[in-house]
Amino acid sequence: MAILLPYSELKLETRCHNQIENEIDRRAIRAGDEELSRDYVKDYPGGKHRPVSPSRKYNCHGLTFGSRRTWISRASEIAKILKDDEYHSIEIKEVMPGDIVVYFQNGDAEHSGIVIESGFVPIVLSKWGPAHEVVHRVNDCPYDSMQIAYYRIKT
Amino acid sequence: MSLNDFDLTLASRVYGIANTAPFLVRKLQADPTIRAMGETCKVEDILAALRSAADVEPTTAVDAVRPYALLVALWFKPEVDHLKEAAKVPASAYRWFPEVAELLIQNFSPVHRQTVQVPGLLSAPSVSVTSSASTTTTPPIILAER
Question: How many domains does chain A have?
């Protein structure tokens, strides 16, 4: 059985074999983490808050681009994934379930999610930092939705 | 006011959903509590609290954000040197510490604060605004002196 360190990086590559910088933080959740998650459940009653505990093993980008396996935080890594994996930008009217959304702010990719329902205001599945996963309207979350972009991967 | 008197609950809530270090920095810079820390506490006290906080593994959500909050408090000081000194503090349990410090140093701009006494425009101790129930289309607003 493998010995797991508190922090480690997965060998996670883009389609072009470029390593994606990532880190799994396996430390236990802290006192107050569960309460914070519960506070967000109250603050965002319109979302469907999935019953998964807070975790630092993966974040929104880890969910969107890494199958919930790890935490990806740097905007440069998101840019690398979008380019190497051949995502292309699409208009909101083209959005379909399975596309992804990235929330940008001053060059930072501060959040991302997977579209699960299209429409005038798409519904996405995302993870809120170390807190839990939420199914929510694209603009009903604690992240700034003024500069969002939708992408579809080329196959 | 002591550093322990500042309530970091709001900061811990932000940290509790932060996916990236720049997001955390932006939100902490907008946190009035952290701004007040920076404006009212001495640099030496903030640095001492930072060294103490960064030296231990966080056990609570508030502990987890404290070193970042203290870094941002230093960002509100008029000199960048304190921030550069703080960036050298060992903080291995705080994974974003080097990145947060770097971001703050990068977007530091010297701020000079001066309190300006504006000549009193209203001599009354307080002013209340009331509207009249008259039949005119635009009810007049009356500034009344108590």
Answer: 1
